[in-house]
């Protein structure tokens, strides 16, 4: 009973000695119990864990104390990009300022002539505001408005980083004049280099050239349409500003091929050298009589003085692009002048006489560009031929359109008729239609044979 209680509470029973009479288990009875082998220190002793270092850890700080949580190493990529970005910005600013300076130099050189010839130069009208008149009086307000309008910065306007424009109006025989200055892409050297490289391999892409392009639009007797009330307040009626329509040009030989390919009006002319012109210039004219009348000594001297800076002077009444409609053949007389830009305002002294001649050329044309009917007969015949071609094309397009409309109406009528028929009636109708079509084809084949 005592042993049972000890076993119940975890006590260990006494080991009884093995029976000595059992010979079969004699070898096992005396053997001691095996003891477990000691575990090697190699497997039990794990390397002590390294103590966590707090030297490289980022301390936790307030969210706005960014400088305590970042280092320069976190911005290596940005440090590589920033110099290139800074270089791009510097080149862009330098290029745009250089282009604006060139445009301003051109305006400084030509502004006195424009202000002398036109009532308004630039896009700002010299008109005083109501506030200025109220605060300082009419006289001072008018002077202030005139000073603002005559400012070089207000006279010229930047359309793009490489293109500047200006405008002039308020002159007899001239409705208005547009000026366009095309400059190099100094703000983007890679694009500038690419355009130059392409010009070496492709004739259709000329090398970029800084130039001033001017277009004078004449009234040609339409003062009342363009400027309502023109001449009504004067004591006498304004003089007639019409002159004969023609195409005539003096061009630099380097520009001759490109102008003939790009401009439809110059493709109507014949090219011929003139003994009075420099060897690098040529005449593009529709009639020799026009050349003798327009090639004045003043123009010859101005072209000689301009030298290689001169590109082209064109008088035209035809469109620059190939006319596609009858409305495009309506004569719109204008005068074009193209010259190269210079680096400073003083360098324009050689081209100023040609620029002044261009401004006053409409007066010369109104007074002298009236030719004999024999000289204008061929010019008019060329224009009538072009008008006849366009009229024929227009009639063919209208006939084709009428045919399409008739076919559409027939198809709608046929569909409505078939929709009101039964299935048998539709089959019979379609059979008769096929028979008619086959007979028509047979007749056509017989006639061709």
From TrEMBL:
Q: Which residues form the signal peptide?
A: none
- For this protein, the parts annotated as crossing the membrane are 77-95
Q: How does it sit in the membrane?
A: Single-pass membrane protein
Please give the GO cellular component terms listed in this UniProt entry: endoplasmic reticulum; membrane
Pfam families noted in UniProt: CCDC47
Where do Basic residues bias regions lie?
439-449
Residues of the region (Disordered) are: 394-449
> Which UniProt keyword terms apply here?
Membrane, Transmembrane, Transmembrane helix
One Gene Ontology term of the molecular function aspect:
calcium ion binding
User: What name appears for this protein in its UniProt entry?
Assistant: DUF1682-domain-containing protein
Q: Which organism is it from?
A: Corynespora cassiicola Philippines
According to the entry, what is the taxonomic lineage of the organism? Eukaryota, Fungi, Dikarya, Ascomycota, Pezizomycotina
């Amino acid at each position: 009973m005592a042993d049972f209680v000890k076993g119940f509470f975890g006590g260990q029973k006494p080991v009884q000695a093995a029976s000595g009479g059992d010979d079969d288990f004699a070898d096992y009875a005396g053997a001691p119990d095996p003891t477990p082998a000691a575990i090697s220190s190699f497997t039990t002793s794990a390397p002590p864990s390294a103590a966590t270092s707090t030297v490289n850890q980022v301390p936790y700080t307030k969210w706005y104390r960014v400088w305590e949580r970042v280092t320069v190493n976190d911005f290596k990529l940005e440090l590589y990009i920033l110099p290139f970005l800074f270089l791009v910005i510097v080149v862009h600013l330098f290029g745009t300022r250089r282009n604006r300076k060139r445009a301003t130099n051109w305006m400084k050189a030509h502004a006195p002539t424009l202000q002398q010839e036109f009532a308004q130069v630039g896009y700002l009208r010299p008109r005083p505001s109501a506030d200025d008149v109220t605060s300082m009086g009419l006289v001072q307000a008018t002077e202030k408005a005139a000073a603002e309008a005559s400012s070089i910065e207000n006279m010229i306007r930047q359309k793009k980083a490489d293109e500047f424009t200006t405008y002039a109006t308020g002159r007899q025989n001239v409705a208005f004049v547009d000026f366009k200055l095309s400059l190099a892409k100094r703000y983007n050297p890679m694009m500038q280099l690419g355009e130059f490289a392409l010009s070496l391999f492709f004739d259709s892409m000329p090398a970029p050239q800084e130039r001033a392009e001017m277009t004078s639009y004449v009234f040609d007797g339409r003062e009342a349409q363009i400027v309502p009330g023109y001449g009504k307040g004067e004591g006498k009626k304004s003089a007639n500003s019409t002159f004969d329509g023609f195409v005539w040009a003096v061009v630099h030989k380097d520009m001759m091929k490109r102008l003939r390919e790009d401009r439809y009006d110059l493709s109507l002319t014949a090219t011929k050298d003139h003994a009075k012109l420099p060897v690098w210039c040529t005449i593009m004219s529709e009639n020799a009589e026009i050349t003798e009348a327009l090639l004045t000594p003043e123009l010859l001297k101005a072209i000689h003085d301009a030298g290689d800076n001169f590109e082209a002077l064109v008088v035209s009444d035809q469109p620059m692009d190939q006319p596609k409609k009858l409305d495009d053949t309506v004569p719109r007389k204008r005068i074009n002048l193209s010259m190269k830009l210079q680096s400073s305002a003083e360098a324009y002294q050689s081209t100023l006489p040609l620029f002044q001649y261009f401004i006053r050329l409409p007066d010369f044309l109104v007074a002298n560009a009236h030719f004999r009917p024999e000289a204008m007969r061929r010019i008019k015949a060329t224009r009538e031929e072009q008008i006849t071609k366009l009229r024929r094309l227009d009639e063919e397009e209208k006939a084709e359109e009428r045919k399409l409309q008739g076919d559409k109406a027939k198809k709608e009528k046929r569909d409505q008729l078939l929709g009101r028929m039964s299935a048998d009636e539709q089959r019979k109708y379609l059979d008769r239609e096929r028979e008619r079509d086959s007979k028509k084809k047979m007749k056509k084949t017989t006639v061709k044979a």
